[in-house]
Amino acid sequence: MAPPATDDTLLSPKELDNGKGGFAFAHEDMISLMRYVWEGCLLPQTPDSYATTFGFQISDLNKDVSAELDSIIGSYGEIRTTTTEFRDKTWPAVVDLAAQIRDYAGNAGGTLDSSYYKAILDWVKEYCTTKDDSKKAELKANISAVVKDQLASIDKLSTNVKSTKETLKEFDTKTQTQSAALNNHKRKVMDLLGGSEGRIAALRKQIKTNQDDLQKDKDDYDYDMTVMYAQISYAWIPIIGNIPGAITMGVFAGKAAAMMDTIHKLEKTISDEQAELAADIKLDTDIHRMDASLQNLVTMIKGAITAVGKIEGAWEIIGGDLQGIHDLVKNDGKHPLNEVIARLDGNKIVEKWNGVHDYTTKYVNTAFISEVETKDINQYLKELEDAIKKNTPSKHD
Questions:
Q1: Which CDD domains is this protein grouped with (predicted)?
Q2: What is the DSSP code string of 280-335?
Q3: What CATH number is attached to the domain comprising 361?
Q4: What is the overall mean pLDDT for the chain?
Q5: Residue 230 to residue 217: CA distance in whole angstroms
Q6: In angstroms, rounded to a whole number, what is the distance separating the alpha carbons of residues 315 and 391?
Q7: How far apart are CA 365 and CA 99, in angstroms?
Q8: CA R_g for the chain
Q9: Rounded to whole angstroms, how far apart are CA atoms 313 and 14?
């Protein structure tokens, strides 16, 4: 256990707070992480379902590329299994961890009358100044009991944090392996389709420009929605992958219109080609998209592991603060913390813990992405167009 703080951070939430008035898990980053996880959960599982999803005949594929499709689907199956387990088991455990922190913060903060930490601080201040032996004994018993209870809660939380961190590390290892395998498939497909020269290479550059624009739209959407602590929704569209839900994206009418224009450009680039070339382009585009998605997922997971590490460290320091108070009482007030406690403002401590409670509550309430629906591009564009019209004031308004 870490030594207690010897300054005004004693009994504060430490790095449970990200320093910006939010949870150690940056909300928009965690939502983006789950967007990439959902990409994996929705991958086709057979060559036939792949061809049907992307709207081409396997016979239209380049012969050598067609032979590679089975291996690609095998990798997709592994990715789908790993991401589905993360979505269904790991992520709920991460959210539950946030809920446990919320509950602890609610007890550490709360009102000035209900706050455990305010009570501990007031009792210790009185303990260090009273001359009444019977009062001193009463205060010592109260402090010891509450501190012991808080340390037990922190021990349980710390165990859960360590377990969560190990699970995230395991997922990171699997995802890195799968990312490397998929990257090899991507490079092989590129070589089979002419490498960096020719018609497909030129189209690939054009498509990447559109996809980069859409990626920015997705990131902006994640940020806008988490700032409002609104429920996130996504749809999955072949070639594009996860895209902001039409109804919620339509609220941002101007941004939605620009995004719709980009989708039209991307769709036109592919649909203008002959069937044989279009099939190759669709597979090439999809594997490039999924390769980038997995690389982004690896980055996001590493960020989550770092955040959990900060939470783990915070609990060690918070536990050290409480242990220091326990030792102070045990030594009849003869402890370096005596002077620190004398100048602490209990109201500010309550306020800080209430801040943790507030933003972890918002985090828990909006941590899950709604079930992602698979839609064809025309269906999505029609829904987005309707949503934009609904949220655009008419000239007569």
A1: ClyA_Cry6Aa-like
A2: HHHHHHHHHHHHHHHHHHHHHHHHHHHHHHHHHHHHHHHHHHHHHHHHHHHTTT-S
A3: 1.20.1170
A4: 91
A5: 17
A6: 45
A7: 9
A8: 27
A9: 9
